[in-house]
Amino acid sequence: MLARCILQDVDVLLLDEPTNHLDIAGIQFLEGLCQMWNKAMICISHDRRFIETVFDTYVEIDQQKIEKFQGSYDQFQTHKRQREEAQLRQYEAQERFLKQQDRFIERFRYKASKASQVQSRVKMLDKMDMVDAPAAQKSQDVQIATVGKLPHTLVTLSGCEM
What we know:
By secondary structure, this protein is α+β, with helices and mostly antiparallel strands. It has helices at about 1-5, 25-35, 50-55, 75-110, 115-125; strands spanning about 10-15, 40-45, 55-60, 65-70. It has a two-stranded parallel ribbon. A two-stranded antiparallel ribbon has the order 3-4. α2 (about 25-35) links the parallel β1 (about 10-15) and β2. α4 packs antiparallel against α5 (about 115-125). It starts with a helix and ends in a 35-residue tail after the last helix.
C-alpha cells in the first residue's frame, strides 16, 4: 500500500503504526522515505525514535483548535504541558475574579447609590473574553470504513482555529 501511495503521487500520506512488523532495515528505509517526502504526512505511532527521526513539526487538534509546534517531540511535550498549566492558572484567576464581581453585584444590586457601578460590572462581564477550563484527556473512537475506491475528498476539517 505504501508503494501504491508513492506511485500515485498522493497529497497526504496517512501512516498508522508504520514501523510495526518491520525489521531494522525496513524501518531505516521508511525513515529515509518519510524524510524525503515533501508533502503532508499524518502519522500515529508509539515508536518514539521513529517520530523523533522523521518529524520536526507537530500539530495537535484539541477542542476545535489547532496548535502547531516546530521542534523535537520532547520540546513539543514540554510546550504542551506549559501551555496547559498556563491555561489552568488563567482559568483559576478568572474564576476568582468572576466570584469577586458576582459578590459585588449581589451585595449592591438593589442599592441606588451603587447602581451605576453594578451596571458597569455587569456590562464588563458580558464583554469579557472567557478562558476555557483545560479539558481532561479523553479518548475518541475513530472508525474508518474500508472501501474499494477512496473518494476524492477523504477528510475535511472545518471550524478549527490555528
